[in-house]
Amino acid sequence: MELFLDTANLEEIRQAVRLGVISGVTTNPSLAAKEGIGDLEAYKSAVLEIARLVHGPISVEVTALDAEGMVAQARDIAAWHPQVVVKLPSTVAGFQAMAVVCKEGIRVNQTLCFSLNQALLGARLGVAFISPFVGRLDDEGHQGMALVADIVHLVRRYAYPTKVLAASIRHPLHVVEAMRVGADIATVPFKVLMQMTHHPLTDVGIQRFTQDWEKAGLARSRP
Ligand code: G3P
Known about the structure:
Elements: E1 2-6, H1 10-19, E2 22-26, H2 29-34, H3 40-53, E3 58-61, H4 67-78, E4 84-89, H5 92-101, E5 108-113, H6 116-125, E6 129-132, H7 134-139, H8 144-157, E7 163-166, H9 172-180, E8 185-188, H10 190-197, H11 200-221
Parallel strand pairs: 1-2, 1-8, 2-3, 3-4, 4-5, 5-6, 6-7, 7-8
Helix pairs in contact: 1-3, 4-5, 6-8
Bound molecules: SN-glycerol-3-phosphate (G3P).
């Protein structure tokens, strides 16, 4: 399973890239706003910087709410850089925009996907990625990962050339479950990526190896 980083923070991206496991980045207007990005020009500069750091898809979301506005923004955003993928929401306007821009060859990440029916519509329109939001479904008392599993089944059963991107990942267990249900990608916040590196038994093991090594060294140096 591939791992994308879910952030617009350049320092987090720089640090994550050093781990060598990140093959893409996803952003959204909330993540951009968190970094002080408030217009498309600033969003573009950040994305061009991200493209220098990561050699994979970079998802950038439209902010327009009507189909015409989304299509215009999608065309503009897609021209920023060859790595850019345009995030369009799972709404009537979003599907109308997907119907236009997917035909033009623009790669789309169908975002805010909360149902199998929404996923079917995106798959039929030819989106490159479908993003079910796991954590937000869990927040509402639904099984977010069950939706990921259903979409994986849909895409494989009908052979849609669409990747299933588990999004709204909140903790390392979400990543484990995404692997188990066969998601193609999980997009993870930096904090979760760091949590994935950690196991207390690894720390204990290192401590023990170091102590034993030092003890043996001391014993050998005694007369
Ligand atoms: O990839 C979508 C993600 O950014 C949403 O995450 O935690 O705001 O639900 P969250």
